Structure formats: C-alpha cells, structure tokens
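Anyone up for a design puzzle?
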C-alpha cells in the first residue's frame, strides 16, 4: 500500500473512531436522569412564550422547547417542573443550580455570556419596541420626548431604553417595576405613557391584557437586537450540546418537511439525512450521551420549529406574529441548523 493510501486509511479510521466516541458525561444530564425530571425556568406569564392556564398547564414557544428537551432525554414531556422566574431572578436561579435549563425570553449578550453562562441557539429573533395608546396621538418614538415609560429592572430592555433616548437626544421618565403583571397594570391604568419590552412581548400583552387591543399600537421603531435563546451553566459542554442539538433538530425537521403528524412515516423516508436525524440510520445519539431516537422523540412531542411557532405566536394566534427573521434560511430568515451527521 502506498504511503498516500496508508495515510488516507489511517485518517478514515481516526474519523470513524472520533464519530463513534460517546460523550463525556456531564453533571446536568446525570442529575436530570437521576431525579427523572427536567427543571425548566420560564417566564412568570408571557402569552405565546410561557404562561399557565387556570389549571396550571403551561403552554408557549419556550415551554415547547422545554418539552422537546425532556422528550429527547426522558421520553416524557410530563416530567418537567416549570419554575416561574422574574427577570431579576432568572440568571441567579440558573447559576445556583435551582434550575437545569432557562428558557425564558432571555437576550444573548456578551456580558451574560461572560458571567458563567452559555447560550444555546436562538429560538426567537426579536427587537425591543414601544407600545402606546392610540389616544396619545403618537406615531413615532421620536415624538416621545419627556414621556413616562414603564420598564422592568434587571433587563437589557432597561439599558436599551436609556441608550436609545440618549442617542436621539430625547428625555424620558422611567417607571421601574419588577413584577411583569404590575408593569402591565401600571401601563393600562395610565400611570405611564409607554410600555417597552421585546416586540413579541408587547404583542402578547396587548392581546391578553388590554380590554380592547385595538386601542393600542406598537410604534414602528425597533430599538435593539434581541436574540432570545435558552441558557445553561458554563462548563457542562455535554448539556449545552444536548439543548443546542435538540433545537437544531426541530429546525432541521421543518426544512426536511418532518412534522409531528408524519414523523412515524418519515422513519421510512429514502433521504439519508432524514434517516440520520430520526435515528433510523446511523448512531448519532451516543455523541450527545443519548440514544439514537432522541430527535425523533423531540419532534414527535412538539412538532418542528415552524409548527411550534405557528401554534403559539403565529398569524392564527392572538399575537398574530409574522415569521420574519424567524423563517427558515431557505425562506429568507435566520433559522439554520448545522448538518446532522
């Protein structure tokens, strides 16, 4: 055998050994398996993303991400303890080990990434906005000089608000309130002229809290970039990989036309990439510390990313949000999964 062929054979053998290697066990996966439950930190109540009904059943886009992770690991979406957290509580709860995973409309930023936290892929690309009553007669944020603005503390929202008004040489009076329901109540009672948070959050509040949603408008200015992503503790690479690839699997499923309804039929699909994703071919699971059907279970539990979006916040829901940046890359959006192979 020539030296070139020997080298190629050695490289192929090394690659095979690398791809077959199991994941190094991490403390979070071991803890979740040991207790038989995923503890997921969520919003205290944000329509479309995470909110409980009168029976305490949680629904929303963020909740479905929690369910997908639980299905991938435990094969049971009922084995989740939802921990509602305020903006100020959420990161401390994760760092202290009170929760396993934070899926709570949290913006990925440099400061947070450097604070002992790791972010999984973005599940919703958003931006900060401003909502006012139509009766205020305002059509642009640049008309809000001297306005009172309701905002939550401990958020990028609070910082962005100050930056934006300063950059446009405008003044404002902040009304800072920690509890989300109290912020909303203050705005709708007229205590402040403006309510600010992520645009998706404003749409949810308008649809669910306002007695007449048509009386309020979200102004056209987008004040910031708000990539909302699940968060894990820094240092447990295996756990971050599991959360990340579960999200990627949901995005890849939409691109491949795999739905909650047809996922069983797709097990027999002739497309090798579909076979690999669903575990009908290959053995990718051990690389994550899971079995080969992890992605199948996640999709079977909640559907693909597009289904999750439309079910919780899409055009047929009270929020009526467009896909926009959250469309697949093939449709002009930013949702893109690396190769599952």
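Challenge accepted. My sequence:
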């Amino acid at each position: 055998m020539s030296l070139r062929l020997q080298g190629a054979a050695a490289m192929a053998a090394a690659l095979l050994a690398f791809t077959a290697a199991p994941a190094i066990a991490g403390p979070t996966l071991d803890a979740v398996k040991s207790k038989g439950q995923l503890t997921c930190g969520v919003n205290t109540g944000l329509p479309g993303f995470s909110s409980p009904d009168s029976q305490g059943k949680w629904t929303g886009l963020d909740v479905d991400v929690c369910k997908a992770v639980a299905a991938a690991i435990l094969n049971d979406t009922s084995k989740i303890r939802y921990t509602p957290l305020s903006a100020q509580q959420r990161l401390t709860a994760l760092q202290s080990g009170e929760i396993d995973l934070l899926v709570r409309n949290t913006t990925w930023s440099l400061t947070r990434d450097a604070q002992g936290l790791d972010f999984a892929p973005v599940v919703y690309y958003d931006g900060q906005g401003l909502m006012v009553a139509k009766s205020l007669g305002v059509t642009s944020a640049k008309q809000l000089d001297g306005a009172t603005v309701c905002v939550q503390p401990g958020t990028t929202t609070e910082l962005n608000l100050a930056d934006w008004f300063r950059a446009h040489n405008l003044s404002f009076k902040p009304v800072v309130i920690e509890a989300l329901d109290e912020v909303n109540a203050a705005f709708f009672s007229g205590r402040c002229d403006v309510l600010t948070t992520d645009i998706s959050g404003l749409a949810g509040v308008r649809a669910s809290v306002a007695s007449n949603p048509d009386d309020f408008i979200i102004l056209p200015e987008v004040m910031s970039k708000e990539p909302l992503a699940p968060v894990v503790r820094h240092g447990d690479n295996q756990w971050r990989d599991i959360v990340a690839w579960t999200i990627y699997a949901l995005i890849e499923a939409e691109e491949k036309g795999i739905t909650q309804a047809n996922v069983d039929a797709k097990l027999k699909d002739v497309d090798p990439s579909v076979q690999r994703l669903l575990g009908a071919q290959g053995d990718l699971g051990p690389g994550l510390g899971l079995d080969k059907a992890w992605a199948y279970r996640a999709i079977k539990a909640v559907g693909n990313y597009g289904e999750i979006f439309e079910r919780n916040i899409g055009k047929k829901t009270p929020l009526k949000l467009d896909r926009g940046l959250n469309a697949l890359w093939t449709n002009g959006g930013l949702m893109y999964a690396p190769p599952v192979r």
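A detail worth pointing out: DSSP finds 13 helices and 14 strands in the chain.
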